[in-house]
TrEMBL record:
This is DUF4276 family protein. It comes from Limisphaera ngatamarikiensis. It comes from the Bacteria.
Length: 224
């Protein structure tokens, strides 16, 4: 059995990994996927606050600590592309082009900065709620009191692939959801909606996510 450590931005991603990704990889590849939550603040008393990306220095330190685990076959990440710190590798040389070109540029710069062959960076285009927008109709199931707003949300994103719903302050995925579903809570509702959508549907509509998951699944092929 291979052990993979995944560095996640918040508790929502942690729940998604635990309830959706980890069971899939264990069943299909006998890969143990273990999430580790980002550490964002330390106090003098030694208390640690977890969740969210505040600085790249903290991210790099956390990743290096995870790579210190010699039992881990791979260390990967699940971090939002939207809202990355300004000093994130590659951000100052971000090229023009599609979101896919830009996110791969950042991931390559991230990998080069860490400099370990066991590190596989993954940035979610553009944030976790992208996966919710694969099937926005499912929001009406968990937030039925806002169901009359559903068609407005569907119209808002019609014709846009989920991973291309952009990263503007008012137009990134969670902002669009909150415009119509004001009671939406990422940690509570996000994993419920995504679990109901199903991993295969998400893979069909989210190219970048699917490419990453294929690389994780590739670990089982190496050992067979």
């Amino acid at each position: 059995m291979k052990r993979v450590l995944i560095y996640v931005e918040g508790q929502t991603e942690e729940t998604f990994v635990r309830d959706v990704l980890a069971p899939h990889l264990m069943k299909t590849c006998q890969i143990e996927l273990k999430p580790t939550l980002a550490r964002t603040k330390h106090t003098k008393s030694g208390q640690t606050f977890k969740g969210g990306i505040v600085s790249y220095a903290q991210v790099k330190g956390d990743i290096q600590r995870l790579l210190g685990d010699s039992n881990a076959a791979l260390v990967t990440t699940m971090i939002d592309y939207y809202g990355l710190p300004d000093n994130f590798p590659g951000k100052d040389t971000l090229p023009a082009g599609t979101p896919y070109v830009r996110v791969r540029h950042l991931e390559n710069a991230f990998a080069n900065d860490i400099g370990d062959p066991r590190f596989l960076p993954f940035l979610v285009l553009h944030e976790f709620e992208t996966l919710v927008l694969v099937k926005p109709e499912n929001l009406g199931k968990v937030l039925p009191q806002y169901e009359n707003q559903l068609q407005a949300l569907v119209k808002n994103i019609r014709g846009i692939p989920p991973e291309e719903v952009n990263d503007g302050p008012q137009t990134h995925p969670s902002a669009r959801i909150l415009q119509h579903f004001r009671g939406y809570q990422r940690r509570l509702h996000g994993p419920l909606v995504i679990k109901d959508i199903g991993l295969e549907t998400i893979r069909e509509q989210c190219t970048h996510f699917n490419e990453w998951l294929k690389k994780l699944e590739g670990l089982c092929e190496v050992t067979q």
